[in-house]
Amino acid sequence: MGSAAQTVEESVDYMNKHGGKCGVLNVHLYRPWSAKHFLSEIPKTVKRIAVLDKTDEGGAHGNPLFLDVTATFAESPDFAIEAFTGGVYGIGGKGFLPNMAKAVFDNLALPLDQVKRRYDIGITDDVTGRSLDIGPPIHALPPGITQCLFYGLGKDGTVGANRQAIKSLGE
Fold first, then answer.
1. What is the pLDDT of residues 23-43, one digit of tens each?
2. Which of 137, 140, 169, 166 is nearest to 151 (CA)?
3. CATH (residue range 5-140)
4. Is there a smaller number of Cβ atoms within 10 Å at the N or the C end of the chain?
5. How many helices (H) and strands (E) does the chain have?
6. Where are the domains of the chain?
7. What 3-state DSSP class applies to 48?
8. Which of 141, 144, 160 is nearest to 152 (CA)?
9. Chain centroid to CA 153
10. Per-residue pLDDT tens for 42-77?
C-alpha cells in the first residue's frame, strides 16, 4: 500500500508552495479497516477526494480502497464531500511521477460536471478514454536533492556494481 505516497507527498508540497490547496493521506493498513482512525485524519473542510490504487477491479463499481473510502464517508454525517474520484496507477509497471499526481489534483479542481470520476494514470487509453492528461514534467523535490536511476539485469555484475555505487554516493 502507498507505493506512490511519497511522490504524491512531494507533489502536494510543490503544488501548495505554488498556490495550491492540496493534501494527502497515506493509508498504511488496509485490513482491518478503521473508519474512526481514517476519518480522524481528514479535515472537515475537504470537499473532493481522489483515491488512488494499483488494483484494477474490472467490472466492479470501484477498486477496493475506493469502495471502503466512499462507504466510510457515506456512514459519516460530519462531512459534505461533493466528489469522489478513483484512479488506477502503475498500469503495465509504469512508475508514478509528480506530474501524474498533479493531473489527479487538476482533475479534482475542474467544474463538478467535468470531473472524471474513474480514470487511469500514466497511460493513454484510446479504447476507454479514461486516461487523465498528463502535463509536462514537474520537479517537486526540494533544492539540493539529487536523484539517480540505476539499471541492473542481474547475473552480469550490475546489481553488485550498483550497490557499490549507491554506497559510495551515500558516503
1. 999 998 889 999 999 999 999
2. 166
3. 3.40.50.920
4. C
5. 5, 3
6. 5-140, 146-171
7. strand
8. 160
9. 28
10. 999 999 999 999 988 878 888 999 999 999 999 999
| Residue carrying the nine cell digits 501548495 | 16
pTM listed for this prediction: 0.83
Please state whether the peptide bond connecting residue 32 to the residue before it is cis, i.e. omega within 30 degrees of 0.
yes
Within 8 A by CB and 6+ apart from 83, the residues are: 47, 48, 49, 108, 112, 115, 117
SS3 readout for 138-157: CCCCCCCCCCCCCCCCCCCC
- The helix, strand and coil proportions of the chain, stated in percent and rounded to the nearest 5, come to 35, 10, 55
Cell numbers 467535468 correspond to what residue? 114
